Amino acid sequence: MAFVTENIFLIAIALVSGTMLLWPALAGRASGAASLDVLGATRLINDKQPVVVDVRPAAEFANGHMRDAKNIPLEELEKRASEIPAKRPVLLTCATGMSSGRGVGKLKAAGRDEVFSLAGGLNGWTSAGLPVVRP
Q1: Which H or E run includes 10?
Q2: Does residue 94 have an active-site annotation?
Q3: Given 21, 28, 80, 101, which is the most exposed site by the fewest CB atoms within 10 A?
Q4: Distance CA 29, CA 49 (A)
Q5: Could you say which of 44, 45, 77, 94 is catalytic?
Q6: pLDDT at 18
Q7: Average pLDDT of the chain?
Q8: Helical (H) or strand (E) element with 118
């Protein structure tokens, strides 16, 4: 007991840092977000021909995007979900993977089953040397 009272500050720091390390994994599960790394996304594209939806604003999309991607900004995703073919899986992408992760939850709430987020987003895609359509 003396150890705890003498080292309460260090114990608190350890608990807070542990929580911060686990938070991304816990938050992803809570939202139902299923993310794929670049390799997983490439396999999905080659095997199941998903609909690729870029949830960035139109101006960012115009500066470069994945081939055959459809632009539906995150704010419009729920209203425009009917534009996404129902029988195909969906791969959502954004700049970093954060917005597309939120989009997964929105589409799953709208009744879609096979919805994935590209981990690392377009930044991760280009870092892996994969092609981007530019104007």
Answers
A1: helix 8-31
A2: yes
A3: 21
A4: 25
A5: 94
A6: 78
A7: 89
A8: strand 115-118
Fold of domain 32-127: Oxidized Rhodanese; domain 1 (3.40.250)
What's the DSSP call for residue 50?
P
- Strand 90-93: give its sheet, edge to edge: 35-36, 115-118, 90-93, 51-54, 70-71
Q: How many angstroms separate the CA atoms of 72 and 81, rounded?
A: 9
Q: How many CB atoms lie within 10 A of CB 104?
A: 24
What percentage of the chain has pLDDT greater than the value 90? Answer: 70
pLDDT digits (tens, 9 = 90+) for 35-64: 999 999 999 999 999 999 999 999 999 999
Domain extents for the chain? 1-31, 32-127
Token representation of residue 7: 């080292």
Assess whether pLDDT exceeds 50 at residue 30: no
CA gap 117, 56 in Å, rounded:
13
Q: Which residues contact 135 (CB under 8 A, 6 or more apart)?
A: 62, 63, 64
